[in-house]
Amino acid sequence: MSYTVEQIVNTSPVIPVIVVDELSQAAPLAQALFNGGLKVLEITLRTPVALEAMKLMKAAVPEAIVGAGTIVSPEDVTAAVEAGADFLVSPGATDVMIDAVQAANIPMLPGVSTPSEAMHLSSRGFSFLKFFPAEAAGGVAMLKSIGGPLAKLRFCPTGGINLAKAPEYLALPNVVCIGGTWMIPKPLVEAGDWAAIEELAREAASLAR
Description:
Layout: H1 5-9, E1 14-18, H2 23-35, E2 40-44, H3 50-60, E3 65-69, H4 74-82, E4 88-89, H5 95-104, E5 108-109, E6 111-112, H6 115-123, E7 128-131, H7 139-147, E8 154-157, H8 166-170, E9 178-180, H9 186-191, H10 194-205
Parallel strand pairs: 1-2, 1-9, 2-3, 4-5, 6-7, 7-8
Helix pairs in contact: 2-3, 2-10, 4-5
């Protein structure tokens, strides 16, 4: 099944940003997050097993929307598409990467941290953008400031956001969802405490938009 970016960002208030170190973690982690109510999963391409982990997650939870993050090149686009990604996420954007994304006809949240970057991607046809690194790039105040002049754009802020900070972001009219890692702390993943992760996911999924 294919999805639009709008469908993806409106599915859950939080998209977990996942780093998988061991393939054995992939399926139970996906199941725990999904059972907790987080239906969209972003697997970052930061480890050698990331693409295989994404395949395992999609097989374990077919109802989940599973995408690839940390896309930084046309080669990453090709690899993620071939691995079956439902969508892509990048920390920033280059025209050559955007060309590859549009040629592949796959939904993407390209990353921006400035109004100029946002305007450029808007000119390339993107209206949903990742705001990254959110806290370091000005956080809630920055998103409020650009909300007026860039009123048609919607953002998924990611980077430095935790459960305590999440509601202030989600209350902004130009924020559709947020990305975060707080519901998948490494010690719980390494311990295989999937019940605890499911509970953290449930807490994140219950955040109001």
